[in-house]
Amino acid sequence: MDEPECTVLRKLKERERRTQEKWTSFLYRNEVKPRLSEKAKRNHQREEMEAYQQAHKARLAHEKTCALCQKPRA
Question: What are phi and psi of 52, to 5 degrees?
Fold first, then answer.
């Protein structure tokens, strides 16, 4: 049975998952949608990637500092 997870960590994981989905959905977007200019495409991709990186770093930082998250799991 899984141990109870820290609520902050759960929220951070959900944020990371949502930003990753948003970023990857842009990368694999359906070409039926209006095409962006190359510059706009690069800017949008960079913004989505940075949002994902920030969410990932926040989750990792929390796991390092939270006592509940640091308990060894067997």
Answer: -65, -45
